[in-house]
Amino acid sequence: MVNQIVFDIETGPLPAAEILAMLPEFDPAEVKVGNLKDAEKIAAKIAEAKANHLADFTERAALSPVTGRVLAIGLLAGQTFSVIGHDDEAQLLRDFWCASEGVELIGFNCIPFDLPFLIRRSWKLGVQVPSHIRHGRYFADTITDLRAEWQLGNREFRGGLDYVAKF
Prior knowledge:
The protein is of the alpha/beta class. The chain contains six helices and seven strands. The longest helix is centred in the N-terminal third of the chain and has 21 residues.
């Protein structure tokens, strides 16, 4: 029996119409115009900021469980690699939670990103999150976040998986 699963999630944006429904209203008063006095230059700066407002929100959509969705979850159990992927995101989540039963979950940055994303998408879709994932406000001891291990308590340390793997 495999007692550890290394996992990683891949996310993508929701359909454009759903993302746009979540777009916060653009406030031109928040645009910093500095020392500009020319009304045309100010208007151009505000127009650019408005265009960037939509583009920035859309570009980051896949990183939020509010505007993104789970596309796939890669699993490494022993020597076996598999991918859970469905068009039906709720079924994908159910399959992952089922696979997580009775094993140690290992991920990189999984406590601040992957697991909260999975849990929030599960809430949205009415998928039950197993009780073995969290104990109160903390994640279970059966979850290992390799990034947290690498940081050794220094939360200011940054570096992605590629950086750490090269080390």
